[in-house]
Design a protein that fits this description.
With about 290 residues, the chain is of the alpha+beta class. It has 7 helices and 18 strands. Strands 1, 2, 3, 4, 5, 6, 8, 16 and 18 form a 9-stranded mixed β-sheet that branches. A 4-stranded antiparallel β-sheet has the order 7-17-9-15. Strands 11-10-14 form a 3-stranded antiparallel β-sheet. Bound molecules: 2-oxoglutaric acid. 2-oxoglutaric acid binds near residues 81, 105 and 118.
C-alpha cells in the first residue's frame, strides 16, 4: 500500500489496496494516520458489496444510522444518493441531481457524526463532481485579522435555516418538516482543537451558521462570507472527478464539501455511510451551551 499526494492538493490517494480483502494492521494504521492528518482519502477501482462497505466503515469508525429513512438501502447503515427512481416511481435515495453548495454534514447536531464516505456506482457523463476544502489549512493560513476575529467565536448552527425557507427543495426526498422538528439549533465554536495534536481547524458551514454570539447580524454575515471565501480558494480545494468504483472518505469536522449538479437525464448512484469517529483521535465539534 502507498499513500500519495493528489495533484497539489491536501487530499491523499491510497494506492495498492483492495478493500474487499482484509487490510493488514500496519496498512490500516497508516491509512488512518493519513485520514487524521488530511481529512480526505481517495481509493480508486474498488468493487465492493454493501457488506464490504460496512466492513470498510468499521475499520474507520462506528457505522451510524442516517436520519432520512427513505434514503436507506437494504443494508441499514448504507445510504443511497441518487436521482434514479424505484420500480414504484419513488426516489431510490436522496438529493436527486441538485447542485449542493459548500457545506459540512451534521454540523447542526450537538453530537455530529463526522466520518463519512461516498462510493461511486454509476456516474453521469457530465457534472456531479464533488470537491472538498480543508478547514485545517484554512485556519492555518488565515490573515491575522480573521484569525483574531474567530478566536473564541461561537456560531449558531441551524438545520431549519439550511433546509427550510428559501433553501427548501421539493425534489431531494428530504423529510424536511420532521427533521426540522427533531433538530433544534445548536452552538459550536468556529475554531476547534484536535484533542491530541492541538492542531486547530476552522468550523464554518455556509447556509447553516445563522449568527455569531456577540456580533451584529451584518458583521457576522460579513465575517462568515470572508471565512468562506478564504476557505474555498482554489489552492485549498480538492476536486474529484468520479469514476465507478471510487471511494472517498472524509472527516466533516475538518473539511467542507460541495457537489456540482448534473443533467436529470443522466443517472448517478452513490452509496454513502456515516461513521462515528473516536473522540480521542479526531476533532468532534463540541457543543456550547
Ligand atoms: O453526492 C455527492 O457527491 C455529495 C453529496 C453530499 O454533499 C453529501 O452527502 O452531503
Amino acid at each position: 500500500m502507498q499513500i500519495a499526494p493528489i495533484a497539489n492538493s491536501f487530499a491523499r490517494e491510497v494506492q495498492g489496496v483492495s478493500l474487499w480483502q482484509p487490510v493488514s494492521e500496519p496498512d490500516r494504521a497508516a491509512m488512518l494516520a493519513a485520514y487524521r492528518e488530511t481529512g480526505v482519502l481517495v481509493f480508486r477501482r474498488q468493487a465492493l458489496s454493501e457488506d464490504e462497505l460496512v466492513a470498510f466503515g468499521r475499520l474507520v469508525g462506528a457505522p451510524s444510522l442516517y436520519a432520512e429513512t427513505a434514503w436507506l438501502s437494504s443494508t441499514p447503515e448504507v445510504i443511497i444518493l441518487s436521482n434514479l427512481l424505484s420500480s414504484d416511481g419513488s426516489m431510490l435515495g436522496g438529493l436527486a441531481n441538485n447542485r449542493l453548495d459548500w457545506h459540512t454534514d451534521q454540523s447542526y447536531y450537538a453530537e455530529p457524526v463526522t466520518g463519512c464516505f461516498l462510493y461511486g456506482v454509476e456516474l453521469p457523463a457530465e457534472g456531479g463532481e464533488t470537491s472538498w476544502a480543508s478547514l485545517y489549512t484554512a485556519y492555518e493560513t488565515l490573515p491575522p485579522e480573521l484569525a483574531k476575529a474567530v478566536e473564541g467565536a461561537v456560531g449558531t448552527f441551524s438545520f431549519a435555516a439550511r433546509v427550510g425557507g428559501k433553501n427548501r427543495k421539493s425534489n431531494d426526498n428530504h423529510d424536511t418538516d420532521r427533521r426540522i422538528r427533531e433538530t433544534p439549533d445548536v452552538k459550536h465554536p468556529l475554531v476547534n482543537v484536535h484533542p491530541k495534536t492541538g492542531r486547530k481547524a476552522l468550523f464554518i458551514d455556509p447556509k447553516t451558521v445563522t449568527g455569531i454570539d456577540g456580533l451584529p447580524q451584518d458583521e457576522a454575515n460579513d465575517l462568515l462570507d470572508r471565512l468562506l471565501a478564504h476557505t474555498v480558494r482554489p489552492e485549498n480545494v480538492y476536486d474529484h472527478d468520479w469514476q465507478p468504483g471510487d471511494l472517498v472518505l472524509w472527516d466533516n469536522a475538518v473539511v467542507l464539501h460541495k457537489r456540482e449538479g448534473f443533467p436529470s437525464e443522466n443517472s448517478r448512484l452513490m452509496k454513502r455511510m456515516i461513521l462515528k469517529l473516536d473522540p480521542a483521535e479526531h476533532i468532534i465539534p463540541p457543543v456550547v451551551q
